[in-house]
Structure formats: structure tokens, C-alpha cells
Amino acid sequence: MHTQQLPKPGQRIQCLRMGNDPDPIPAGSRGTVLRVDHCGKEYHVSVAWDSGRSLNLISVADKWLVLSAESCTA
Q: Secondary structure of the chain in the HEC alphabet?
């Protein structure tokens, strides 16, 4: 069951933890959500990371925070 807030395209997001990827996005990294796909019992969040990478977040393995407009300017 999905328990964290699902982002919408265009929203800013911060990676809190990336589960099982051998080359994960570091915790604390920020990016912009491109799209969210429902795949069976999980969601895949496509992100354009500020670092230039484009690795998806997976709802069953990764943790993220959807940033408010206020936290994006801080």
C-alpha cells in the first residue's frame, strides 16, 4: 500500500532514500517530477534531477518528500 504523497508533474521533489539501486540518487537531491505512472501495485515517479540524472523513484522501494513552494525558494 502506498503511504507517501504522490507528486504531480511539475512539482519539486526531494529524495530521502533510494532503496535497491546500485547507483542511487543521493539522499537530499532535488528534482522536478516529469510524470507518475501506475504499474501494478507500485508507482514510478519520473524525475529530472537537478544533477542532470533522470533515475525514477519507485513507490515500494524509495522514499521522497514533495516540496512546498516555500521550501523550494529556501
A: CCCCCCCCCCCEEEEEECCCCCCCCCCCCEEEEEEEEEECCEEEEEEEECCCCCCCEECCCCEEEECCHHHHHC
Q: Where are the domains of the chain?
A: 12-69
pLDDT tens digits in sequence order for the chain, 74 residues long: 345 789 999 999 999 999 888 999 999 999 999 999 999 999 999 999 999 998 999 999 999 999 987 555 55
Q: Which residue has the cell 532514500?
A: 17
